[in-house]
Amino acid sequence: MTSPGEQIGSLSEFQIFSFGKSIEGFGDMWKSIWIWSLLSFGVAHGAGGLIAFVNCQDLGPKRWTWLIPLVFGVLGMLIPMTAGVVTATMIAGVYSSAGFDMTTTEAFGWGVGQCIVYIIGSLSRNLSSL
Question: Most buried among 2, 41, 62, 104, using CB within 10 Å?
């Protein structure tokens, strides 16, 4: 087990969160994009779960309303652990095979961008059902 701040590859755990640092190597690129994707999906689904929970409380006391944030949280972690891994791998593969260096700011943009594209796609498909 690693301690906080210990080097894993060429990028330490805390350097992922400092913008402007250079990322070299496929593993560090993949890890940086995936962590930002995981965090952005967690924040988005956490906010959605909290809003849904508060709105369900307005309908009256229900026995299962506490499950709503749990379902949103599971979905918020399941999506980046499946689709996020695949897209982060593809992006890191393109960068590393082309010989480009990535900065932590670019990894942030790719990770959060995945969440934004997913949200836009979800809202545009659900619009017809409203």
Answer: 41
Chain segment 68-89, per-residue pLDDT in tens: 778 877 877 888 888 889 999 9
Across-strand partners of 102?
A: 23
Residue type at position 10: S
Residues 6+ apart with CB under 8 A from 15: 21, 104
0.85 exceeded by the pTM? Answer: no
How deeply is 7 buried, as exposed, middle or buried, from its count of CB atoms within 10 A (0-12, 13-18, 19+)?
A: exposed
Tokens of 114: 């995945």
Name the strand (E) or helix (H) holding 8.
strand 7-8
78 — phi, psi (to 5°)? -70, -40
CB atoms inside a 10 Å sphere around CB 6:
10
Residue 68, H or E segment: helix 67-79
